[in-house]
Write a structure and sequence with these properties.
Layout (H helix, E strand, L loop, with lengths): L2 H11 L4 H8 L3 H8 L7 H10 L4 H8 L6 H21 L3 H11 L3 H19 L4
């Protein structure tokens, strides 16, 4: 199982650099390099950060790493197509304003997504408070 190979394959498929992933995951670029070369195994916490920076789940990375090396790239491409198809189907079920909001949300960085969710929760709690 070479999780580093999977991370590198997915990163290059997405057209991202090690620096971009490191910045988004808030870890050192040298750690990304070592992980991709198989010189270091990521901790669970680091793997979660990397997965989030790659817009995927750790379970996808683990599952891909169990594939034969020659099939990893194909597996990740198929996984990406399935995710995109699910988003397209979901968007058919949403009203236009919800579709717009979801599309904009999906373009945000993971840290901005967290920030926006916290703001929405706050706004929602204010909306439900009885006026005095």
């Amino acid at each position: 199982m070479n999780i580093g190979h999977v991370i590198k394959t997915l990163r290059t498929q997405r057209g991202l650099t090690q620096e971009q992933i490191a910045l988004e995951a808030d870890i050192a670029t040298s750690n990304i390099s070592r992980i991709e070369k198989g010189q270091r195994q990521p901790s669970q916490k680091v793997l979660q950060k990397i997965a989030q920076a790659l817009d995927t789940k750790p379970s996808v990375l683990y599952t891909a790493s169990e594939q034969p090396i020659s099939q990893i790239s194909v597996f990740l491409q198929q996984e990406g197509m399935l995710k995109k198809a699910k988003i397209e189907v979901d968007s058919l079920l949403l009203k236009q304003d919800s579709q717009t909001m979801l599309a904009l949300f999906n373009e945000l960085t993971p840290s901005n997504k967290s920030l926006l969710l916290e703001q929405l929760k706050t706004l929602h709690s204010w909306q439900n408070k009885p006026s005095s």
